[in-house]
C-alpha cells in the first residue's frame, strides 16, 4: 500500500491533522510477514484531552448539534460517496495491518461502511426527533436530544466497519465523536476520517486518536465525554461498564459470543455443514458473531464430523493478498498462542481433533493456525464456553429438539446463532426459543443496516444498527408547554 496510508505522522483531531503531544509511535506489524509495514503516533493522555476538548467545544458551541436532521443527512450522504471511492484503500490497509484475506474484505471490511452512512442519512430525514403529546388539557413536546460527546472504542478485526457502526448513528443524532482505534490496526480508520473531512463535517466533530488500553481508559473516564460506545472482549466491556457506572455515564457494549448453530434432523447435511465451516473460518474466525458451536443430532453426528473435517481441509490458507485464500493469519502472535492453547485444552478435556489443530505447512512466517474441527465436544468444556476468536469449530451432539435448545442457551453469551432445517416454519419456532440477540433461519439475514445487532447476557448492552442504533445516541426529553401552544410547538 502507499506510504501515505501506512505511515501516519499526525492525528486527526477536531477536523485537522495535528502533531502528537509526544514522539512515541506504534509500529504496525504484518501478521503474514511479521515485518513492520506502517506506523502511527501513539496517543498519550494529553492527546485525548485535546480531542475531547475539540469535541466538547463543537458540541456545546458549534453548528453540528444545531443543524437540522436534513443538513446532517446531507453530510452523511456525501461521506458515503467519499467512502465508496476509498473502499480499495480500506481493504488494502486492513489486509496489511490485521491480516484479513483480501477475498473477505468486501464482506468484513468495506461492505457495510458506505451503505451504513447512506442508511443513517435516510433515517435522519424521516426519524421522529420530536413529537407532540396531548392528554386532556396538558400538552408536552417530547424531543430526542443528542447524547453529547461520544467516546468510541473499536477493535482490530473490522476497524472501519465497527467504527462506522458507531460514528454514523452518533453523527446522525448530532453527537460529536472521539474515536480510539486499536493499536494492532490503527491505520484504516484514518481513511474514514479523510472521507468525513471531504464530506464537510464541521470542525471539532470527529477526532481519531489511536492508542493502547491506558489511553482508552483515560478517554472512558474523561469528564468531557457523555457516552461510551465500545466493541471488544467481554472482560474489557465489564471494566468499561464499571468505570462508566462510577460516573453514571451512558454506555453501549458489543462484546463476545459463543454462538450456536442448530442443525435439525431434516436439514440437508451435505450442504449445511460446509456452509457452517466456511462461515466459522471467515476472517480467520476472528468474528464475535461467528457460529462456533454446531449442534447436530446424535444419529447424524459421525457423518457431520466427517463432512466438517473434509470441508475444513479444503479451505485455502495462506497469504491474505492472494484472492484465492479464505483464511489468512491471526492478528498477532499472542492471538495464535491463545488459539493453540484452547486446542490443547480441548484435547486434554477429551475432545478429538478431526481436522487441523496445528500450523499449516509451507508458511514459515506469519501467525497462522489451520482450520480446525473439534469433535466429541461436551458443552461443559472450556472450548465450548469461552470465545476462542480463531478458526476453530466445535461439533456437539444433541438428543432431541429440547436438548438442542438447552445446549444452545447454556452459555454465558447470547450474541448470534442459527437454525438449519428443511422446514423454515419449524426453524422459526426453534429460533424464537434461543436467548440471543440475532439468529438466522437457514442463513437468511435481513439487510444488516436496517436491523439491530447486539447481545443478550454477557454479549453486551444496547444495540447497534437500525433505528435502535440511532436511539442509543439520543436522550429523550419532555417539555411541558401551555395548551395555547398546541400544534405550534412542532413548527418552532
Strand content: 15-25%
Q: Which runs of at least 5 residues are low in confidence (pLDDT < 50)?
A: none
What is the residue-averaged pLDDT? 96
- CATH fold call of the largest domain: Aldehyde Dehydrogenase, Chain A, domain 1
Assign the structural class, choosing from mainly alpha, mainly beta, alpha/beta, alpha+beta, or little secondary structure.
Answer: alpha/beta
CATH superfamily of the largest domain: Aldehyde Dehydrogenase, Chain A, domain 1
- Any idea of the CATH class of the largest domain? Alpha Beta
Strand order of the largest sheet: 14-15-16-13-12-18-19
The termini sit apart by 51 Å
Structure description:
This is Aldehyde dehydrogenase family protein. Keywords: Oxidoreductase. One of its GO terms (molecular function) is oxidoreductase activity, acting on the aldehyde or oxo group of donors, NAD or NADP as acceptor. The active site is at residue 254. Residues 17-478 form the Aldehyde dehydrogenase domain. This protein has 492 residues and is an alpha/beta fold. The protein folds into 2 domains: 3-255 and 459-478, Aldehyde Dehydrogenase, Chain A, domain 1; 259-450, Aldehyde Dehydrogenase, Chain A, domain 2, CATH 3.40.309.10. It is 38% helix and 21% strand. The chain contains 17 helices and 22 strands. The protein has helices spanning 3-6, 45-61, 69-85, 87-98, 105-110, 114-126, 159-173, 188-198, 213-221, 234-247, 269-281, 301-313, 333-348, 382-385, 401-409, 424-431, 466-471, and strands at 11-13, 16-18, 25-29, 36-41, 130-135, 138-146, 149-153, 176-180, 206-208, 227-231, 250-254, 259-263, 291-297, 352-355, 372-375, 392-398, 413-414, 417-420, 440-441, 456-457, 460-461, 474-481. A 7-stranded mixed β-sheet has the order 14-15-16-13-12-18-19, sandwiched between helices. The chain has a 6-stranded mixed β-sheet with strand order 9-8-7-10-11-21, sandwiched between helices. Strand 1 and strand 2 form a beta hairpin. Helix 3 (69-85) packs across helix 8 (188-198). It is globular and about 70 Å long.
Amino acid at each position: 500500500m502507499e506510504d501515505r496510508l501506512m505511515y501516519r505522522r499526525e492525528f486527526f483531531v477536531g477536523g485537522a491533522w495535528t502533531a502528537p503531544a509526544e514522539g512515541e509511535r506504534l509500529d504496525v506489524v504484518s501478521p503474514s510477514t511479521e515485518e513492520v509495514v506502517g506506523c502511527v503516533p501513539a496517543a498519550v493522555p494529553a492527546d485525548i484531552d485535546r480531542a475531547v476538548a475539540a469535541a466538547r467545544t463543537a458540541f456545546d458551541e458549534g453548528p453540528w448539534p444545531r443543524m437540522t436532521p436534513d443538513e446532517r443527512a446531507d453530510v452523511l450522504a456525501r461521506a458515503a460517496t467519499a467512502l465508496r471511492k476509498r473502499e480499495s484503500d480500506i481493504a488494502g490497509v486492513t489486509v496489511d495491518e490485521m491480516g484479513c484475506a483480501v477475498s473477505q474484505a468486501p464482506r468484513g471490511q468495506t461492505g457495510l461502511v458506505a451503505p451504513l452512512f447512506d442508511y443513517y442519512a435516510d433515517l435522519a430525514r424521516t426519524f421522529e426527533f420530536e413529537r407532540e403529546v396531548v392528554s386532556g388539557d396538558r400538552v408536552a413536546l417530547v424531543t430526542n436530544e443528542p447524547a453529547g460527546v461520544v467516546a468510541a472504542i473499536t477493535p482490530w478485526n473490522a476497524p472501519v466497519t465497527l467504527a462506522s457502526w458507531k460514528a454514523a448513528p452518533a453523527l446522525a443524532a448530532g453527537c460529536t465523536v472521539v474515536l480510539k482505534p486499536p493499536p494492532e490496526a490503527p491505520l484504516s480508520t484514518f481513511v474514514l476520517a479523510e472521507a468525513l473531512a471531504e464530506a464537510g463535517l464541521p470542525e471539532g466533530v470527529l477526532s481519531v486518536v489511536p492508542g493502547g488500553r491506558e489511553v482508552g481508559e483515560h478517554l472512558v473516564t474523561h469528564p468531557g465525554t457523555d457516552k461510551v460506545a465500545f466493541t471488544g472482549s467481554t472482560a474489557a466491556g465489564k471494566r468499561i461498564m464499571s468505570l462508566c457506572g462510577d460516573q453514571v455515564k451512558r454506555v453501549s457494549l458489543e462484546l463476545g459470543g459463543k454462538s450456536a448453530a442448530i442443525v435439525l434432523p431434516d436439514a440437508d447435511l451435505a450442504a449445511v455443514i460446509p456452509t457452517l465451516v466456511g462461515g466459522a473460518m471467515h476472517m480467520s474466525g476472528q468474528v464475535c458473531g461467528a457460529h462456533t458451536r454446531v449442534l447436530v443430532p446424535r444419529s447424524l453426528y459421525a457423518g457431520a464430523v466427517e463432512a466438517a473435517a473434509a470441508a475444513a481441509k479444503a479451505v485455502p490458507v495462506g497469504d491474505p493478498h492472494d484472492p484465492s485464500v479464505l483464511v489468512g493469519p491471526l492478528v498477532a502472535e499472542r492471538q495464535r498462542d491463545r488459539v493453540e492453547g484452547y486446542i490443547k485444552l480441548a484435547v486434554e478435556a477429551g475432545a478429538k481433533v478431526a481436522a487441523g489443530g496445528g500450523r499449516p505447512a509451507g508458511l514459515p512466517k506469519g501467525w497462522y493456525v489451520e482450520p480446525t474441527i473439534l469433535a466429541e465436544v461436551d458443552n461443559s468444556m472450556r472450548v465450548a464456553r469461552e470465545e476462542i476468536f480463531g478458526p476453530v469449530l466445535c461439533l456437539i451432539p444433541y438428543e432431541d429438539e429440547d436438548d438442542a435448545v438447552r445446549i444452545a442457551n447454556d452459555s454465558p453469551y447470547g450474541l448470534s446463532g442459527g437454525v438449519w432445517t428443511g422446514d423454515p416454519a419449524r426453524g422459526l419456532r426453534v429460533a424464537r426459543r434461543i436467548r440471543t440477540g440475532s439468529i438466522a433461519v437457514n442463513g437468511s439475514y435481513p439487510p444488516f443496516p436496517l436491523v439491530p445487532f447486539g447481545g443478550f447476557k454477557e454479549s453486551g448492552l444496547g444495540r447497534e444498527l437500525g433505528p435502535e442504533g440511532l436511539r442509543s445516541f439520543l436522550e429523550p426529553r419532555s417539555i411541558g408547554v401551555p395548551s395555547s401552544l398546541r400544534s405550534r410547538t412542532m413548527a418552532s
